[in-house]
Amino acid sequence: MSITMDELLAAAAVIPVLTVQRAEDAQPLASALKAGGLRVVELTWRTEAALDALTAMKIAEPDLVVGMGTIRHPEQAAAAEAAGADFLVSPGLTRELESA
C-alpha cells in the first residue's frame, strides 16, 4: 500500500464507495470524480470487472487514491495490491487476512 491511514483520513472527509459493472466505465468515472474535486474513492469487489476497473482508474488518474473494498480473502488482498490499490477495506478482519 502506498498510503497510511492518517494520510487517507487527511486526504478525504468523504470517501465514495463505488461498484463498477463494466471496466470500460472506470476511466471516465475516475476522471469525472477527480474533476469534481474528489481525491479518494473505494471500489467494491462485487463485480467481475472490479480489478480491471481499479487498474483503469489508476492509469487514468494516477493521483486519485483508489482503494478496493469487500476484501474477504488473502488472495483478494494480493490481487488488489497487484492491480494498484492504494488501500484495502474488509468487512471483517480474520486471522487469515491479518497475516496477508
Annotation keywords:
single chain, 100 residues, alpha/beta, 4-stranded parallel β-sheet, 5 helices, 4 strands, 42% helix, globular
The helix-strand sequence is: HEHEHEHEH
Overall morphology: globular
Name the beta content range: 5-15%
N-to-C terminal Cα separation, in Å? 12 Å
Rounded to an integer in angstroms, the radius of gyration calculated over CA atoms is 13 Å
> For the largest beta sheet, what order do the strands appear in spatially?
1-2-3-4
Structural class comes to alpha/beta
Mean pLDDT: 92
List segments where confidence is low: pLDDT < 50 over at least 5 consecutive residues: none
**Helical residues, percent:** 40-55%
**How many separate helices?**
5
Q: Biggest β-sheet: count, sense, barrel?
A: 4 strands, parallel
Total number of beta strands = 4
Q: Would you mind describing this structure in some detail?
A:
By secondary structure, the protein is an alpha/beta fold. The protein is built from five helices and four strands. It has helices at 5-11, 26-35, 50-60, 74-83, 95-98; strands at 17-18, 40-44, 65-69, 87-88. A four-stranded parallel sheet has the order 1-2-3-4, covered by helices on one side. Helix 4 (74-83) links the parallel strand 3 (65-69) and strand 4 (87-88). Helix 2 crosses helix 3 (50-60). The radius of gyration is 13 Å and the shape is globular. The mean pLDDT is 92.
